[in-house]
Specification:
two-stranded antiparallel ribbon; Amino acid/polyamine transporter I; mainly alpha; about 70% helix; 2 strands
């Protein structure tokens, strides 16, 4: 088997610094204002119960990634463990879908920043904003990883202050009891207060799960985390649960605390409307500024994460020697700058694609990637490849991987029901999967010794 190429990342991050980077990438405020606002519009009061369920889904997600990441804490994240446990074909598929969606994800994040910057600075032309913000985020991502952790950590503190303001306003102004969580959901539909259908709740549930799960981004910093096998599991658990509660609680409390709930649910910006009514008119614009900062912060860490994934592409010799060597370079500061620049260019190029097309390309990611992660943990524990001595292990085996596969089935059904984005996304990413399998069987497997993800690290 070919040996890895290029430099090595430096193991100089502690668990707290990786936690800061992971929470910055998760960005609870972005999930609240993006997915949380959409779900409130779709299912109204039903959002409270769905986000409570989302916390439970986050527990399953955290358990799977904590076990896989503890055994395989590598910059390639999912694909290393999946490929080592299930085989090179599965690693190549996982790598391909994450790599293919990296640029669209960065561009989508940058495009979502435009309305907030335009609100704060009305005179700025909207067209250049995504390109300028990606370039600025890349400049921070290219700094030393510890410096990047400190900068994003400072931004994260402001973001969490905004979350705390929402939670505090909800706790101080209760308007209805916990019975709302189990009562018949109502929403503002076509300008009228009406009951929510079971189909709308089902689609909303998938959006909620997508918005509350996370923490797997920590794996990308696995080769820079000290004592990674022992510390990665707790970092993933902490990041996922902090992110889940920070996302879910504000949504639940808005439903339980809004005095004029129909007006809040009818508002295009329900959280700003709620906070302005509860605290004062000044709170809405201030919160919008917090959202803009949170989106930018998530973009910075998203580029850092993508850079480490592309670094793994080069180190594991996915292409020719010249491109592999370029991607696998590590600067004296310990940052994979060449790979980070490649990801930045990919994201900039995707800014020329429409927002809806970007959303379509990304929507089916969880169906393929999450299914393989759950299978890897299920089979890896039985083979003794995960959950061993010194590694984090999910309790009550095989409960969590089985529940994870059920979640994957729910994601699949939801995407198939969504003719606008989900169904075409499954088709497009299915083509990516087929291309990855072709590359593996026609190129990588034919190399002397075959190919599996590298376990070489500092």
């Amino acid at each position: 088997m070919d040996q890895p190429t290029g430099g090595k990342l430096r193991r100089n991050l502690n668990a707290f610094e990786v936690l800061l980077l992971t929470l910055s990438c998760l960005s609870p405020v972005v999930s609240i204002f993006g997915i949380g606002g959409d779900v409130l519009h779709q299912v109204g009061t039903g959002a409270a119960a769905l986000f409570a369920i989302g916390i439970g889904a986050a527990v399953v997600w955290a358990a799977m990634y904590a076990e896989l990441g503890s055994a395989y804490p590598f910059a390639g994240a999912d694909y290393v463990g999946v490929g080592r446990i299930l085989g090179g074909w599965a690693g190549m598929v996982t790598l391909a879908i994450w790599a293919a969606t990296t640029g669209p994800s960065i561009a989508f994040t940058a495009r979502s920043l435009v309305p907030y910057i335009s609100e704060l600075a009305p005179g700025l032309p909207a067209g250049p904003i995504p390109f300028v913000t990606i370039a600025a985020a890349a400049a921070i991502a290219l700094l030393g990883v510890r410096t990047g952790a400190l900068v994003t950590g400072a931004f994260l503190a402001l973001e969490l202050a905004a979350v705390a303001a929402l939670i505090g306003a909800g706790l101080l102004h209760p308007a209805r009891g916990l019975g709302t969580l189990t009562a018949q959901p109502f929403a503002m539909l076509a300008g009228h207060w009406a009951p929510v259908s079971a189909a709308a709740l089902a689609l909303g549930a998938v959006s909620v799960i997508y918005g509350t799960v996370g923490g797997n981004q920590a794996l990308y910093f696995g080769e820079e985390l000290k004592d990674a096998n022992r510390r990665m599991g707790p970092v993933v658990i902490a990041a996922c649960m902090i992110g889940a509660f920070a996302t879910a609680l504000p949504v639940i409390l808005v439903v339980l605390s809004a005095r004029d709930l129909p007006a809040v649910l009818a508002s295009p910006a329900p959280f700003a409307t709620f906070l302005s009514a509860a605290v004062g008119a000044w709170a809405g614009p201030a919160l919008s500024a917090g959202v803009a900062l949170a989106i930018f912060n998530a973009m910075v860490v998203g580029i850092m994460v993508g850079g480490r994934l592309f670094f793994s592409l080069g180190r594991d010799r996915l292409f020719g020697a010249s491109l592999d060597g370029f991607l696998a370079r590590v600067a004296p500061s310990g940052v994979p700058r060449a790979a980070t620049l490649a990801v930045t260019v990919f994201g900039l190029a995707c800014c020329f694609v429409g927002v809806h097309a970007l959303l379509v390309f990304m929507s089916g990611l969880l169906v393929y990637g999450w299914s393989l992660v759950c299978l890897a943990v299920l089979i890896g524990r039985r083979k003794g490849l995960t959950g061993g001595p010194g590694y984090w292990r999910a309790p009550l085996f095989p409960l969590f991987p089985v529940l994870g596969l059920v979640m994957a089935a729910v994601f699949t059904v939801s995407d198939l029901m969504d003719a606008d984005a989900g169904r075409p996304s499954l088709l497009l990413l299915g083509l990516v999967v087929l291309a990855a399998l072709a590359w593996y069987f026609l190129v990588l497997k034919r190399r002397p010794g075959g190919w599996t993800p590298s376990l070489d690290q500092p």
